[in-house]
Amino acid sequence: MIPYTQDVSQSLGRGAFAGLDLAPWKAQAKAILADLSRERRTGALELLTICDRADDLAAAKPLAEALLKDTSDLVLLGTGGSSLGAQAIAQLTGRLTPFSRGAGPQLHFFDNLDGETYSRAFAAFDWRTTRFLVVSKSGTTGETMMQALAAIKALEDAGGGKYAKHHFTFLTEPGGNAMRKLAGELGAPVADHPLGIGGRYSVLSLVGLLPAMLMGVDPALMRAGARDVLAAIETGDPDQCPPALGALQLAALMEAKGLRQIVLWAYADRLERFVMWWRQLWGESVGKDGKGSTPIPAVGPVDQHSQLQLYLGGPDDKHYTFLLPPRKGQGPVTHAALAEKIGMASVGGYAIGDLVAAQALATPETLIAHGRPVRRMTLPVYDARALGALFMHFMLETIIAARLMGVDPFDQPAVEEGKVLARTYLADGKG
Ligand code: PA5
Question: What is the pTM of this model?
Fold first, then answer.
């Protein structure tokens, strides 16, 4: 059973986005579901079958054990799709939020390239107990390669050069790319990035699930949640398949009504990286050929104090999806007597989560009252299975929406163009 519910009854809005005939979009989505079902059966789209595997997880177990052995600091190098999924998983465990380091080594993600940040980290690391997992599908991304090469040099400078193979593990495509060669030079272990899965769709491969193992998240449970969602493809009916229903509404709004901005608003700190993962997925997958919509990540309730005025009072040009994990009753309870005394009885004697739960109800309702298009996705439990399901939901939704719009969900020509130009400028000493 799919571990979330999706309410799209208010998804089309009343104002700028009213009056859509969804019938032709449903017919197209039905045909796309049939294609996806065939691609799953024949193995033509690896993303749809990777969750049926367990052999890759078993093979990676010794790598995970070695990465954790006598380790104080575990550094994950990679960018874009080679990092964001693992970050979202880290937040599932509560890591990356204050006061929640969790068991095991201290985790560090360096997805953005910044020499200052990296220098500070190098000064703090104990090089005897710091290990690196370096992830790059292509094995040639400049940011990741520079980070890896700088770390190897620093380890050497600290006198640990001959132990490099114990400090670095690589995850990249099979073949003879630069990262494979680097691993070979060090004699370091390498795991395979699946050839048929692109960076931003790779979270349910070892790209996300080797880090999951390092954080004590059960990768098999994540894949089970993803399979729950995949099973809905087989209904062949967009009304019975949440990602297809979401996709056809968004595609119809973009293509027929000019929708250009979509907001994914999660009411939980632990979903903050998830919405950033989705931002890349949606942006790179649908934004091409002059089409697409800008993904806007948001976290609640804090963004009520930052964006809600614009969302309610500004232009009616956005679609809103709320991600709603359980909040009620969570967290410490406030001092009731003191709250009463200072005239704040309205927040006295409640758990912190009670207010968050009330806000998570009130904000979408206020948007709906203003005629804005709103979808609500409710998670009765937020665990590894639910996160796996959410990953698969949004990957399928993105693929189906892109296909409905007639764009290729899997390429990223503009990103590649930028990578090539940056390499030329670096070689020319520019910048
Ligand atoms: O989605 C994508 O393909 C990109 O954003 C990549 O994830 C990113 O550029 C990193 O590429 P690589 O994994 O080849 O280092």
Answer: 0.95
User: Are residues 213 and 228 both part of a single domain?
Assistant: no
Report whether residue 172 contacts ligand 1, using a CB cutoff of 6 Å.
no
In order of 85, 132, 149, 210, 219, the CA distances from 73 in angstroms are: 20, 9, 18, 16, 22
Residues 344 and 250 in one domain: yes
Residue 136 CA to ligand 1 centre (angstroms): 7
Residues 188, 241 within the same domain = no
pLDDT of residue 99: 67
* Structure tokens given for 60: 């990676």
What are the tens digits of pLDDT across the range 134-155? Answer: 999 999 999 999 999 999 999 9
Ligand 1 neighbourhood includes 79 CB (under 6 angstroms): yes
Q: Verify that 182 and 235 share a domain, yes or no.
A: no
CATH of the domain at 158: 3.40.50.10490
Cα angle 357, 363, 369 (rounded to 5 degrees) comes to 135
Is position 328 annotated as part of the catalytic site?
no
C-alpha 409 – ligand 1 centre gap (Å): 14
420, part of any domain: no
